[in-house]
Specification:
The protein has eleven helices and ten strands. The protein is an alpha/beta fold and about 260 residues long. It has two domains: about 140 residues, Rossmann fold (3-Layer(aba) Sandwich); about 110 residues, Rossmann fold, CATH 3.40.50.1860. The strands form two sheets. The chain has a six-stranded parallel beta sheet, with helices on both faces. Strand 1, helix 1 and strand 2 form a beta-alpha-beta unit. The longest helix has 17 residues. The chain is globular. The mean pLDDT is about 95. It binds D-glutamic acid. D-glutamic acid binds next to helix 3. Provides the (R)-glutamate required for cell wall biosynthesis. Belongs to the aspartate/glutamate racemases family. It catalyses: L-glutamate = D-glutamate.
Length: about 260
Amino acid sequence: MREAPIGVFDSGVGGLSVLAEIQRLLPNESLLYVADCGHIPYGEKTPEFIRQRCSVMAGFFREQGAKALVLACNTATVAGVADLRRDFPDWPIVGMEPAVKPAAAATRSGVVGVLATTGTLQSAKFAALLDRFATDVRVITQPCPGLVELIESGDLHSAELRQLLQGYVEPLLASGCDTIILGCTHYPFLKPMLKSMIPADISLIDTGAAVARQLQRLLAERDLLAGGPNQPVRFWTSADPAYFKNILPLLGQSAGEVQNFSL
Ligand code: DGL
């Protein structure tokens, strides 16, 4: 069981930013990654639809013998993690949500910005997160429609992307925030561009590394950490596998086996 793989999924390539953190912290683990690119963007879908996709993914990874599941997607987590934990109470499941707690602790100006999908920002789980951890700070939320689609197309540098991103960042800067939460796993790929448009003393916070640490904790508690050596990552996509294979190196992964995910 220790050598069984870990299932990781996102609506698309965003979860690769989390996969990289897991690879860094847990190099002995074998990883399976499903990109549900055929249903992107989750951020503009209904919670019911996303819950149904989460359940399909969980069923698939169970069949593959995964010893743990990582929802490398904020939007999927806010919609679906509670149902998954109810349905699979003994399975280690790691979800992720915008880093409101660390951002509230870190801000000096008392103003925190959140870039995330519409679905995440409208969710009850996000509202509860603000009630719990952000009572003493001002939180400015900014949905970012269109960013995910550009990143999925392999665009991390174009003028079109810059213009769209600038429009989302401007209101946060104008409100005096000194800490910006990247509340969608696609956005860490935009860090170089973001850094070029914000003052150097504004911090960008994402949760990929924290997710990897939480996964490590859950596996260690159950004596499930792999001893290695690991197997190469196996990828699936619900869109075009050849396209996905080409985009992997752009996003920091060495090209691997990519299969069609048709569920
Ligand atoms: N990567 C996802 C997240 O963390 C969502 C992207 C999408 O809208 O599909 O929220």
